[in-house]
Design a protein that fits this description.
alpha+beta; five-stranded antiparallel beta sheet; four-stranded antiparallel beta sheet; 8 helices; 18 strands; elongated
Length: 324
């Protein structure tokens, strides 16, 4: 019995050693990343820091970057480096470089998150030898970015803040420095600038795509159709939130989505049933269907007396009573 126990322990120890050795070897092996796919890699002597890397579409260039951080009480700047065919072109320090991209001619775009306690960021573009060719500071935190195939245009997004830069997309003509800003229509995980059509294609986390023009306007209704086909009810309701009332109140699909949210198999709590009942009532109010408005607003009031339609509801009820 003792011998058997000793054998089992020996096998277990050998197994652990092999696993650890395999893990260590795996970390040290350089892996060629897929095109434009980020991977955390130890750069070793090539760049001298640990961070993320991203290749150009033709894979001739690779941008390396690492975020700034505190070491104890001292702030350490982030790093940015560009390689062409595995040869270092330049290396510099930036406060907090993130979401960096490089194009086929070596042009880099970078979202500098900045070391700040307020909402702000700095979008920067560098040429192949590291000269700054464009920069734009914002009063909101920066998100994702992308660059066109010819490096002339780029976009970057901002997140929520308490000022005019909140939840925006900035379209930049890098060569002329012209910058446009418009509302960010959806949250997206990737974007593509179509120069031939002068449109931007935004892809969300559900792989649904919205196409907008260079003024930020949606050019078709394909995005709504994709949400409907995939039964993404919550996302569909969020989509309608950004559409003017006069437009969505004419869309029967909007009423169907609201009804499904409280009655269908895909019930959602994201907006709260009180608010959804209020919205259904508002839909019928716009069509002068007052009885239906009262019906749904009373449902909303029962769930939340402060949903915001109490006075109007009382007025409609008195009007109906006086006319009956």
């Amino acid at each position: 019995m003792i011998i058997l126990t000793y054998i089992l322990i020996t096998i277990l120890v050998i197994g652990i050693i092999l696993v650890l050795k395999k893990t260590k070897t795996k970390k040290e092996v350089y892996e060629q990343p897929e095109r434009n796919v980020r991977k955390i890699i130890r750069f070793g002597d090539k760049a001298g820091f640990i961070g993320l890397m991203e290749y150009s579409p033709n894979e001739n260039f690779c941008v390396y970057y690492s975020d700034g951080h505190y070491e104890k009480s001292n702030w350490k700047l982030g790093n940015l480096a560009l390689f062409e065919n595995e040869e270092l072109i330049f290396k510099k320090q930036i406060e907090r470089p993130n979401n960096c991209k490089v194009n086929n001619n070596g042009t880099i775009i970078c979202c500098d998150w900045l070391n700040s306690e307020t909402f702000e960021g700095n979008f920067i573009s560098f040429d192949k030898i590291g000269n700054e060719i464009y920069s734009k500071k914002t009063k909101a935190n920066l998100g994702l970015c992308s660059i066109s195939e010819n490096s002339d245009f780029s976009i970057f997004e901002t997140y929520s803040s308490d000022n005019e830069d909140s939840n925006k997309i900035f379209l930049v003509n890098i060569s002329t420095k012209e910058t446009r800003k418009f509302d960010r229509p959806i949250s997206f995980t990737s974007s593509y600038i179509n120069l031939e059509k002068e449109t931007i294609i935004l892809t969300d986390r559900n792989n649904c795509k919205m196409e907008i023009n260079f003024n930020g306007q949606e050019i078709n209704s394909n995005y709504k159709t994709q949400l409907k086909e995939k039964n993404l009810l919550n996302e569909l309701l969020l989509y309608y939130e950004k559409i003017p009332d006069k437009t969505k109140f004419k869309d029967s699909d909007y009423l169907n989505a609201l009804t499904q949210a409280v009655e269908g198999v895909h019930k959602t709590y994201s907006f709260g049933f009180d608010k959804i009942y209020r919205k259904i009532g508002e839909f019928h109010e716009e069509r002068n269907e007052i009885q239906k408005t009262i019906f749904y607003w009373e449902k909303a009031i029962k769930l939340n007396s402060k949903v915001g339609i109490k006075r109007k509801l009382e007025i409609y009820k008195k009007t109906v009573a006086n006319n009956s």
